[in-house]
Amino acid sequence: MTSTSTSANICRHLAHAAEHTPNALAVAVQKAQSNGDYRYQELDFAKLHRESDTIALGLEQYGIVKGMKAVLMVTPSIEFFSLTFALFKAGIIPILVDPGMGIKNLKQCFAESKPDAFIGITKANIARRVLKWGKSSVTKVVNVGGNGLTKLLTGGIELHELAKLGEQANAKRAEAYQMQYLAPDELAAILFTSGSTGIPKGVEYSHSMFEGQIDTLKLDYGIKPGERDLATFPLFSLFGPALGMASIVPDMDASKPITANPAHLFAAIDKYQCSNMFVNPALLERLGQAGRGDALEKQHKLNSIQRVISAGAPATISSIEIFSRMLNDDVEVLNSYGATESLPISMIGSKALMGTTAITDNGGGICVGQPVDGVDVQIIDIHEDAIKQWDDTLSLPANQIGEIVVSSNKVSQRYYQREQATIDSKIEDANGRKRHRMGDVGYLDDDGKLWMCGRKAHRVDATLSLNSEELGSNGNELDSNSKQQSKRFYSIPCERVFNTLEDVKRSALVGIEVNGKTVPLICVELVKQPNCSSGKALYASLLSIAKQHEHTKGITRFLIHPDFPVDVRHNAKIFREKLSVWAQAQWKE
């Protein structure tokens, strides 16, 4: 960790860049015009440093001070960067939420975190008043991008007024603004999980966590000062200025990347000759499809890109292959595994990933690569009980599937106001640090590479009543007379087998109750809807392929679903809980 042992603030990196490369580009924000042209707002490091100092002073003058919590709901913009760095400089704790989580979850997040202040665009502030977000705790309101009329609607101070307060205070000061330094493990930010795999939880971030992530981006990903990043994800875009890298923000809805216009992103890359891209799998596929041409000479090329980082969900091999046609031959897509609670954990380049397809298609899970520097990954037995103290005897040997547990300086130590969730997901080690139970299952191979086999909650512990051929050798036989057997099925290994069929777009393993017993069922989303005759052939193919693999033997039930429910941001995380309810209602034994 590069921060001192007694104090930390990631804004020190911005101060360093402002001193040593003041005129270098820090942020550029694109705005598409109706005539097809683009406008760009730009800040260099010196100006971003000054503006965030001024806003930090203004926040303090307005009464939002160190230790207070402030919701930040501002779209990626110049103001977003200035405000976020101002909050960190002032020691104010930003609360960051994903607007795509839905109104009900947003209200719960605000009730749980009890913010002292609300900083948002006009739309967010009007929603706050109408829906009573944070009504019992919010005493200070800042509106971004408004005017006199919106001030009446939102009931707060406008950002330009806040900045004026900072300018007036600064004029009376004899010295430059001094940022607040916190203890390395002191609460610096609250980042709420998206809720795509459960109820959103507030993840406590410290400056030492941010420092650990910055170190990883420098060392493992090789990001250097002077680079330019196409920033499609707000949180990652903040790391740009902290790394001495310019963040180029395209005109898109960051909460719904699948809706992005590829032309806007290509234009931003070309204008600024971006060297780095951070994209989620859904956007990766969308850009790849947009860039492909009928002939080689029509293929769009991203010649300036030196590195592509993909995270959020596993990217498909086909989408990586199509996207990679736009890249130079020596450039890879770096697939990263992690979670809000610990990111990144491991990484694998696209060329190495291509070499694992046979294992994945035969049910070996998805390879997510070697752990990055400073991250320790262990696999433990799968169970739901809390584990208070870490013991090395908990670790399973190589090639045995279990729950993934990680330890590093990038691991959040607790959830905000969620004591039970903290107890359930953290294990204290001998040094008093917490290891994080990822809630994912997988295994480490003989070379130490990590393979993902799905969410722990998505496994199906089934009781099967089948003939001996269908049962396979996994699981424990319960009754030799009735040939009942318990068997555990994992989502990714099972689904990838069925996904190899040409007609299958994607599949999802769920459990349903039949005659009082849990049995596995595969929901199938097809490339196109079958007719009566092809439906029978499809069922025969699904049943046949299930019998060919040890880990899918015993799966005999299939249902066709027209359109899987998936998360808004990644368009890849399947809501299997919803499919399970649907399948239970549909199935007639």
UniProtKB/TrEMBL annotation:
Transmembrane segments: none annotated. Residues 15-416 form the AMP-dependent synthetase/ligase domain. SUPFAM superfamilies: Acetyl-CoA synthetase-like. It comes from the Bacteria. PANTHER family: LONG-CHAIN-FATTY-ACID--COA LIGASE, NONRIBOSOMAL PEPTIDE SYNTHASE PES1 (EUROFUNG)-RELATED. This is Peptide synthase. It comes from Shewanella maritima.
